[in-house]
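Task: complex structure prediction.
Instruction: return structure tokens for all chains below.
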Amino acid sequence: MIVVKVGGSEGIDLGAVCRDVAALLGQGQRLVLVHGGSHRTNEVAAALGHPPEFLTSVSGYTSRRTDRETLRIFEMVYCGEVNKGIVEMLQAEGVNAVGLSGLDGRLLEGRRKDTLKVIENGRRRVIRDDYTGTVETVNANLLNLLLDNGYLPVLTPPAISTGNEAMNVDGDRAAAMVAAALKASQLIILSNVPGLLREFPDESTLIRHIDPTRAQEAMEHAQGRMRIKVLGAVEAIQQGVGQVVFGDARIASPIQAALAGQGTVIG
Amino acid sequence: MIVVKVGGSEGIDLGAVCRDVAALLGQGQRLVLVHGGSHRTNEVAAALGHPPEFLTSVSGYTSRRTDRETLRIFEMVYCGEVNKGIVEMLQAEGVNAVGLSGLDGRLLEGRRKDTLKVIENGRRRVIRDDYTGTVETVNANLLNLLLDNGYLPVLTPPAISTGNEAMNVDGDRAAAMVAAALKASQLIILSNVPGLLREFPDESTLIRHIDPTRAQEAMEHAQGRMRIKVLGAVEAIQQGVGQVVFGDARIASPIQAALAGQGTVIG
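Output:
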């Protein structure tokens, strides 16, 4: 069992990812696909006159400001355009994909943050109307039900809160929770860089291997979006996932390349 | 087993529909929900600078002009905003809903029209790049798998073509195919009018009952969008659905009202 997360950044070749999923399923691999949609969400939000904003938490993580209108646009892009676009591509590759959000069957459930403590222009500020949270439980029964019946689950945020509200969650950390719940041997996290970079965006500074017992150290190297990626990887390994690989989604056969150790291997 | 279709026109109270679904499930009713999203698609398409266009076929049916860009917007609204909005509302009512499009698991599959023959300004014209078609088969296995495991399927167009392309299909006729495939006793079609009207939009001209053997006659009364609704009803009954009711989605308990015979009953 492997879980593949493909990001939503510019430059990612979703067609190559879908072809690779089909090839792996043909080899008998059991697989769940998780995806993002951040770049298109930025574009659509801007086009609809509700431009994206990003927050930096007091602990240094960056997240999308998700008011109710952003959540609506987020669902349009992640669950509509991107999820159904991937399902259509997979169906054309002969894969009987089923696209689902974390709301559907409470696949991704967790706690919404009552307040976000952020740093804005050097000052602390508290935000109360943000629909953001963290996945705490995964409905592995529904994923296994689909897998056992020949369907490939294609999963995307948002998640559902314990109070039944849709909420934005980090896709990498959600994929880590899915991998843990399904007892996956590997979690492959694909983005538009070759892996974790010691000096982002210099691709020649690729970190080839991180010892999970020394992940805290790697966190210090990780910058921006990469920090949350390392956090997700550490969480996955702490919960029993054998290995996490950060791979490049801009190349041919991106999943098989990552499985062969191309990228940053943790574990 | 009943299939409920709720339209996407203005004035529909989706909250009341969701509360009624929860009440019926509480009574042990087996149910599938199908929905539309036309009004919001018009609004979002206009906001994104790709305003909606409608075509009239040579046989007198009206349909949305669905070029590839419209299909993308259609998926954003139907599969993203509306589908996930309904799933969120149902989850808040304690219903473990799973939102799916016709692409997912090939739930709604059919033939894409190679060409559309339309009337434009009194002239015939042929359109070749339209993503529109008709549902021919329904994946009843996947719907029953979800139902048997305690999930409520919430189904929306688009469908998938035999050539693996997403395509716009009429939601009412899709619901009729779903009702037939699931051997439903009743198909309830809810919209923003009390039922079929002899003189649209005069609500005092509500047709209370149509004998299915005389449906052709009713087709002559039906105008605009109502024509395709009658066609869907006739198809459902021809395929073994016991009864079709056109009901009002603007009232409290709209499904239970329709089941009690409020609206236009066919069969």
